Amino acid sequence: MHTNSSERIPIHVITGFLGSGKTTFIRKILEHDKNSETLVLVNELGEIGLDNLLVEQVCDNTYLLASGCVCCTVLTDVKDTLLKVLADKKAGKIAPFKNIIIETTGLANPASMLNTLSFDTHLKSRFAVHGMTCVIDSTLAMSQHSIHPEWLPQVIASNKWVLSKRDLIGSEEELNVRNFVESVGSTGAWIEPEILVDTSNLFALEYMRTEFFNLPFSTEGFKTHKDTQTGVIVFNDSVDWTLFGLWLNILLKQYGESILRIKGMLYLTGQEKPVFLHGVQHCLYPPEHLEHPLWDDGKSRLLFICRGIEIEKIKKSAQIFMNLIKEKS
């Protein structure tokens, strides 16, 4: 039996390369979602997810966000997760929802996900792809296009683009980035983040362009990320910020091109409140002081997503460097 499109649950996909600002973009949307009728599926590469947004675990792998929206971590694949949350919704195990946002991993080629959502027999009768937005880092777009094969299919597959971190570049540079993106991804259109500050705009009918998602997607010519590694460095004791900063600075200067993403939370010596740290390649953003820790075991954790360098080498360098300096002092 064919299900009317109006009866299907609309799905909007948020894609973009590592560190582009997908989570920040989604957080802004959720903060303005007054009806709290959105389910967020996080398909994130690595061991640390949206911990800074999670406030209450509803059931296994399902969390209630600060906005009241429900977040679910994709553990197997998107299809299994969608069918599970639909069953959980019907059984009353999680809060009801009318819309779904899927955040892809920063290394994902969204072609396979779009094809699954659009053509899978079990999904297409229950869900409707409502659009895809690519969040593009204005400071790194051109270099990411040259270095990372995942960047281009993310831009091409999206029908809308959001330019993030515009405050870090000038107007001329922003224009160059926009022109560059348009030259390589001619199927998309720019939107300003302010337009999509809530889900009523995100899922508005005029924002949907379903015919685009019926185009064939080819992954031929794009490399896989089989040589990409993720790992977490754990510090059991508080971290000396000066010492840590020196080590990280040396590491990024030498291997910045290979370190795609850094993020985590540190307990610093002499400070009560922890800091949230994140960066992309050579660029490390100012630490953000947190009112509440992301986890409560008192340990510092730093996630690395790398290509071309062994995670174990990074862990060993941190241990050797920081221990040697401490012993000399």
CATH homology group of the largest domain? P-loop containing nucleotide triphosphate hydrolases
Biggest β-sheet: strands ordered side by side in the sheet: 3-4-5-2-6-1-7-8
Share of β-strand residues: 15-25%
> Given the helix and strand composition, which structural class is it?
alpha/beta
GO molecular function: hydrolase activity; nucleotide binding
Pfam families: cobW, CobW_C
Catalytic activity: GTP + H2O = GDP + phosphate + H(+)
Protein name: Putative metal chaperone
Give the structure's gist in a few sentences.
It catalyses: GTP + H2O = GDP + phosphate + H(+). This protein has helices at residues 22-31, 78-90, 111-119, 121-124, 141-147, 151-157, 171-184, 199-202, 241-255, 311-328, and strands at residues 9-15, 38-42, 54-59, 62-65, 70-73, 99-103, 127-137, 160-164, 228-235, 259-266, 275-280, 283-284, 288-289, 300-307.
